[in-house]
Amino acid sequence: MLFLEVTATGAMATTKEASGVLVAVIIAVVLIPLSGLVGWAFGFRPKLILDDETVTVVNPLRVTRIPLAQIVMAGSGYRGLEMWTAEPRIITAWAVQQSNAAQVTHATTRSDAVAARILAAADAARVRGGLA
């Protein structure tokens, strides 16, 4: 038995053709915007915010606030900037990464400068709080 479908333009299509159209509509309406959202979350959302008292790490799935006085070490790597706290806990910021080439050649990169700036701010916060 063959089923037919009449479209808005009056054309007739078989069910096989109609299911192909449905798949195309699902892709256009659901998957394309979803891939844009995923691209934004993993590509543009990550950031690192340093203020007088805290470091805020915004990664694709989580936002973490760390008091500066708790940071004891920071270093850059391929996965991102890693900050070690006194608890001990390691927080990785995706926004600041170091390339494999920079790691192999031991080149100084922006991520090294950011790690040094965070450590200096953490030292200053401990001095202000009387913890140094």
Overall residue-averaged pLDDT value: 82
- Beta strand %: 25-35%
Q: Sketch the topology as an H/E string, one letter per element.
A: EEHEEEEEEHH
Can you say what the CATH homologous superfamily of the largest domain is? Pleckstrin-homology domain (PH domain)/Phosphotyrosine-binding domain (PTB)
**Roughly how much helix do the residues carry, as a percent range?**
40-55%
Give the CATH topology of the largest domain.
PH-domain like
Question: Span from first to last CA?
Answer: 83 Å
- Broad structural category: alpha+beta
Rg computed from alpha carbons, rounded to a whole number of angstroms: 25 Å
Q: So how many helices?
A: 3
**Number of spatially distinct domains:** 2
CATH classification, class level of the largest domain? Mainly Beta
Strand count, sense and closure of the main sheet? Answer: 3 strands, antiparallel
Question: How many E-type strands?
Answer: 8
Physical arrangement of strands within the biggest beta sheet: 3-4-5
Global geometry: elongated
Task: List its salient traits.
disordered N terminus, 3 helices, 3-stranded antiparallel sheet, 132 residues, PH-domain like, alpha+beta, elongated
